């Protein structure tokens, strides 16, 4: 077994590998860029080596710097995590030349499966079902249009070396191909150093199912069941679960055996994932097609660990050291259900725009991964950040992964909702409310999933999860209690608010447009004359209130506002106004401030790089027309005109770094 390994990655996956290595008694080495100098994974490792500036292209993507760090520290092996160099054959070859073990598959398997175009050719030769499409070199946009017309719309354009949802565009017509082909090439080149693109038929009502593979260097290859990853946004996975609510035992066996055969054909060992697309329109579940094989650990691997009890990182390390797998296919079982939500630095209330900045407050429902594969009481957090840290523009926007395990799918989903309510993030936008809403959505609970779930269920964007009447009434009671506690405190501080008043304290609480009369007494809280069975504690300044209502727990994040609180729970933000009964009637006389009309300005919605400006001064534009393209967190975002007009002034140039709310151009 290795005595020391180096992790050629950052963030939560670096922390994840370090924890398993530590448990195995293996020393660890971290490598870090300027942006990550104070990151948690750097302090967790036994040693750390600085490898360059913040951009990945100048640090984490330079193999020579990783190898130099291995030599300087005596690391015998490298775990690549995912992304960066994890699927670069040149990196694995360079390590082999230096007699440094690669904790991953053999070079020939990476080469065979890492390239989407070549992997499809191999899958065809092996008799594996593949999605109809064009597998070959696409010369230019006109060629792409010709191919798409032949395949038939809709089609998907994908960067050959892509992954993680980057370098992908869905086209419903020729216009979409012309608009998106060059952008797909640029994303592939910028993120993966390869601008080749292939085009394939987009399967209607598709479900994204993947099979976890694990093999050793002695010819043993197993499948560790499936994961359902259908809930995606912009082809980026948001929710993953294991097992899939769609896959039957017959399907699981057929998929698993086919994926093992494919892996065996390329001499695969280590952990890997074969991604499949399944037609949800086929009631037999037999219409599944090979998409690609990821020759590395997947972001969503914890859900497989939770239902099998197998530490995949440990197995990868043991396989790389030459050990045989200690389990057989018959040993692989499914115990319970696991769900993973990716907590991203993006604001669903603003069209999921990337959000960067400092984590002013960061509190997780349980400590970052402790316990076994299922965490603490079925809740596991894999994270690579800490309070006071920064989410920068240089890397992926994922803050953490929240994994829950339960005996049933509903139990795991319920645990997600409860844990998300206790997940506190301040300082930047995040998607906690959004994933909580998904967990509560009737369609999610029914298991009727497709990769179009988010687009279909939130066509007008996200405004928060629907609030049940019992939740809003509970919030009214909690707000009344907090107002009473703050009033009592104010009276105790230098006699503010006059002499002490006897309970009950009487408040008018407005939640979601509905007003409630709340009385807070010494023994009871009444909402609209009806007593609520509620138990809670609150000290002025608390930011999380946990109440027990009718023997059920409700955690609410609270933030003081001028006239009450902003209260967040169950996937929705509630602006709650709390006024004394005798003051409330006067509120109707307050003047409402009307926000200015900003529709004539094209405002940069997030920090980023202006990679393209599509219009110039004096140009006439129509509503919905692309005006500029801004790259943020390795993704290109097209900014469109809100209304028709003429470009009056252009305030930025291609190549400029833009701050949030920067005015790019003005219309007249």
Helix-strand layout with pairing:
Elements: E1 4-7, H1 11-23, E2 27-33, H2 40-44, E3 47-52, H3 63-73, E4 77-79, H4 89-97, E5 101-102, H5 107-114, H6 116-125, E6 133-134, H7 141-151, E7 155-163, E8 166-171, H8 174-192, E9 197-201, E10 206-215, E11 221-233, E12 236-242, H9 249-265, E13 270-279, E14 288-294, H10 301-308, H11 312-320, E15 337-344, E16 346-347, E17 353-354, E18 357-358, E19 361-363, E20 379-383, E21 390-391, E22 398-406, H12 409-421, E23 424-426, H13 432-440, H14 442-446, H15 453-457, H16 469-492, E24 505-511, E25 514-520, E26 525-527, E27 530-532, E28 534-535, E29 544-549, E30 552-560, E31 564-569, E32 572-580, E33 601-603, E34 608-613, E35 620-621, E36 626-632, E37 635-640, E38 645-650, E39 657-658, E40 663-667
Parallel strand pairs: 1-2, 1-4, 2-3, 4-5
Antiparallel strand pairs: 6-9, 7-8, 7-9, 10-11, 10-13, 11-12, 12-15, 13-14, 15-22, 16-17, 18-21, 19-23, 20-22, 24-25, 24-32, 25-26, 26-27, 28-29, 29-30, 30-31, 31-32, 33-40, 34-36, 34-39, 35-38, 36-37, 38-40
Identify the strand order in the major beta sheet: 27-26-25-24-32-31-30-29-28
CATH topology type of the largest domain: D-amino Acid Aminotransferase, Chain A, domain 1
Largest beta-sheet details: 9 strands, antiparallel
Class of the largest domain, according to the CATH hierarchy? Alpha Beta
Task: Write out the CATH superfamily name of the largest domain.
Answer: ATP-grasp fold, B domain
Termini, distance in Å?
69 Å
Structural category: alpha+beta
Mean of residue pLDDT? Answer: 92
| Count of individual helical segments | 16
> Helix amount, in percent?
25-40%
In total, the number of strands is 40
Tertiary shape: globular
Q: How many domains?
A: 5
Which CATH architecture of the largest domain?
2-Layer Sandwich
Poorly predicted tracts of residues: none
- Radius of gyration (CA) equals 27 Å
β-sheet strand percentage: 25-35%
């Amino acid at each position: 077994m290795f005595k020391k390994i180096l992790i050629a990655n950052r963030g939560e996956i670096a922390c994840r590998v370090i924890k398993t290595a530590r448990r195995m008694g293996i020393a660890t080495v971290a490598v870090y860029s300027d942006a990550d100098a104070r990151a948690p994974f750097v302090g967790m490792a036994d040693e750390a080596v600085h490898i360059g500036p913040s951009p990945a292209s100048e640090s984490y993507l330079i193999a020579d710097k990783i190898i130099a760090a291995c030599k300087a520290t005596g690391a015998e092996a490298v775990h690549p995590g995912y992304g960066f160099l994890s699927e670069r054959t040149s990196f694995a070859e360079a390590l082999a030349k230096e007699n440094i073990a690669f904790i991953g598959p053999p070079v020939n398997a990476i080469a065979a499966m890492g390239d989407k175009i070549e992997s499809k050719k191999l899958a065809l030769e092996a008799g594996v079902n593949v999605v109809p499409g064009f597998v070959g070199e696409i010369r230019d946009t006109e060629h792409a249009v010709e191919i798409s017309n032949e395949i038939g719309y809709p089609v998907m354009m994908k960067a050959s070396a892509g992954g993680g949802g980057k370098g992908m565009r869905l086209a419903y017509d020729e216009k979409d191909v012309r608009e998106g082909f060059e952008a797909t090439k640029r994303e592939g080149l910028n993120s993966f150093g390869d601008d080749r693109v292939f085009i394939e038929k987009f399967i209607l009502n598709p479900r994204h199912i993947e099979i976890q593979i694990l093999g050793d260097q002695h010819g043993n290859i197993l499948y560790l069941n499936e994961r359902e990853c259908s809930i995606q946004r912009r082809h980026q996975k948001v929710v993953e679960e294991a097992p899939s609510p769609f896959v039957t035992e017959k399907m699981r066996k057929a998929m698993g055996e086919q994926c093992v055969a494919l892996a065996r054909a390329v001499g695969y060992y280590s952990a890997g994932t074969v991604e499949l697309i399944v037609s949800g329109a086929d009631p037999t579940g037999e219409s599944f097609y090979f998409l690609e094989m990821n020759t590395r650990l997947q972001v969503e691997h914890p859900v497989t660990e939770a239902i099998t009890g197998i530490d995949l990182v440990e197995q990868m390390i043991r396989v790389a050291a030459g050990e045989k797998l200690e389990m057989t296919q018959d040993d692989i079982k499914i115990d319970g259900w696991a769900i993973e939500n990716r907590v991203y630095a993006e604001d669903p209330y603003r069209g999921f725009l990337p959000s960067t900045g400092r984590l002013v407050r960061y509190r997780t429902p349980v400590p970052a991964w402790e316990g076994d594969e299922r965490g603490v009481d079925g809740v596991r957090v894999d994270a690579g950040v800490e309070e006071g840290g920064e989410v920068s523009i240089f890397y992926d926007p994922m803050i953490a992964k929240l994994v829950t395990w339960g005996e049933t799918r509903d139990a795991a989903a319920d645990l997600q909702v409860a844990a998300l309510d206790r997940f506190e993030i301040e300082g930047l936008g995040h998607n906690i409310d959004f994933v909580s809403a998904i967990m509560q959505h009737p369609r999610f609970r029914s298991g009727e999933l497709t990769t179009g779930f988010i687009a279909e269920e939130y066509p007008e964007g996200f405004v928060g999860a629907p609030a049940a009447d019992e939740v809003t009434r509970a919030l009214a009671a909690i707000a009344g209690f907090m107002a009473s506690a703050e009033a009592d405190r104010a009276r105790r501080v230098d006699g503010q608010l006059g002499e002490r008043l006897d309970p009950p304290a009487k408040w008018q609480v407005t939640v979601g447009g509905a007003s409630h009369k709340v009385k807070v007494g010494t023994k009871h809280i009444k909402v609209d004359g009806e007593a609520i069975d509620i138990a809670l504690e609150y000290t002025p300044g608390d930011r999380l209130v946990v109440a027990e209502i009718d023997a059920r727990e409700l955690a609410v994040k609270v933030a003081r506002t001028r006239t009450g609180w902003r209260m967040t729970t169950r996937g929705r933000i509630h602006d709650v106004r709390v006024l004394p009964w005798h003051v409330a009637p006067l509120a109707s006389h307050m003047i409402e401030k009307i926000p200015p009309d900003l529709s004539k300005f094209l405002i940069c919605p997030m920090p980023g790089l202006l990679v393209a400006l599509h219009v110039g001064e004096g140009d006439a534009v129509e509503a919905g027309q692309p005006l500029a393209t801004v790259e943020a967190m390795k993704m290109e975002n097209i900014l469109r005109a809100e209304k028709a007009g003429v470009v009056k002034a252009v305030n930025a140039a291609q190549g400029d770094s833009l701050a949030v709310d920067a005015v790019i151009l003005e219309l007249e």
